[in-house]
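BUG: 3D viewer hangs when loading the predicted structure for this chain

Environment: internal workstation, default settings.
Expected: structure renders.
Actual: progress bar stalls at 90%.

Input used:
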Amino acid sequence: MERDPLSDVLEVLGAQVVRRTRMEAGGPWAFAFPAANRLKFVAVLEGEQWILTENEPRCLMKKGDVCLLGRTSYVVASDPELEPQNGTFLFPERGSDFARVGSRDGVVAIGGSIVFPDENGDFLLDMLPGFLLVGREASGAGAIAAVLDMISKEILRGAMGTGIFAARLADVLVVEALRTLSHDGDRGLTGWLGAISDPRLGRALRAVHREVASPWTVAALAEVAGMSRAAFSAQFSQQVGRPPLAYLRYWRLTLARALLRKDSNSVDEIARRVGYTSQSAFSNAYRQAFKTTPRSRMRVA
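Structure tokens produced before the viewer hung:
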């Protein structure tokens, strides 16, 4: 089966769900959470709640809605006009994953944080907006609702193996949400995700991820996409946020950074594996991108 860019990126980046939480809240309440270098999901199981993020319109989330949050800070509230409290006290480090606020009649929501080893997640986070909503009417709503129900029950059970089981369910939820966004979403909003599902840009992206070491040119990628060179370059840059060869370069170096940490091959071998014909060219590009040398990343035996 052909590798798709979403699977490729998530596998290489090594995404890990590190925390899954459940909140039941009633009455008036509002909580603020700081920006962080992670991907976050928030889902509403019962009732409704407002979510406010930087540079985006306020959003009323209802039962079955899921959102993905990038590096942005955010506020969840029963009323968007309320002054929020610091929400970090609800789920302190090494504390409970369950919080109850006010009366029992209100909203039930779950959340989770997805982190990446070192700075690997920059590749994905740089190309995602701060806020993405997967509505309950989306094409993947049935699968998402089933996963949400299982996550919620696992958090409450606290049974043996719950941690690993809930983490795997959260992985499925995030992939299903990203898949749904790439299929259903407003391509102007979802950027890279929309480009994956675009009939022409998607062909070029799949080619890049399938044959990352090939000597790609803009003209060659435009031919794969079935577009003129100028039209392809302009549409790719607008949609993805980077010109085609800048995207290729960033992915090659991100892939190399992951390989250097876990692969026993030499720098020269990894450089060639990701498409560099000389170690010096690879080292210079790596240093410019990450402000460090490839050898500093190599796994220590």
